[in-house]
Amino acid sequence: MRVCVLSSGSKGNCSYIETKNHKILIDIGNSCAYVERSLRSIGIDSDEIDTILITHAHIDHVAGLRVFAKKHKPNIYMTEKIYKECNLMLENVFDIPAYYEIDDVKITSIKTSHDVDDSNGYIIEEDGLSCVYITDTGYINKRYFKKLYDKTIYIFESNHDPEMLMNNPNYPHHTKIRILGDTGHLSNQDSAYYMSEFIGPNTKKVYLAHLSEQNNTSELALNTLKKELKSKNIKFNNIEITFQNELSEVFVYD
Length: 254
Fold this sequence. Notes:
single chain; Metallo-beta-lactamase, Chain A; 254 residues; seven-stranded mixed sheet; 9 helices
């Protein structure tokens, strides 16, 4: 399995996941040109992308989808509610249920809680390897904890520091409450708690994703997670912060 976060943040999100027989994108919230350029930089022709998974309809997750789909014609998977809310005329769109198989790849949808009609996180699995993608949620239902435990790779939201958010003069109060609420985003503390519940003996890599540019810092996100793991005697250090319009390390694990 090969993973690279191409961009992560409020201005655009896109991640690349490669299995033995499939090349997958989760969301295309950046321009088609940016995604094409980013894929080329890691040795991937955009025509090789055969699958796109969409988490929800917000523009920072679908901005480049229509142009990319028209040019490269991948199969696109999302729920019917997400498709209707996207309001895009697309071909090769398939409704994705709670569990779906594409050849040897198993895809499990995790219902997230965000201020949209419908939203998903995803678990992608093949031959004992797995990648979890969860951003844009106010919380994670405990019924998913067992499914999310001990996966190989996590791309996981650590959006904001609550104190920075509440003291930010540029954000109106109702926006702050929305972000902090059950249909908003995971704080560093929330993220650290969930990660401490999910990281297991087979976990190899954690990407912290969707950091707020105004209400967080990479140091705060990283230190909050490290502190939580230490408090629970969990020894895990392979953690990377992801950024807006900047490629992460390409992580390969066979």
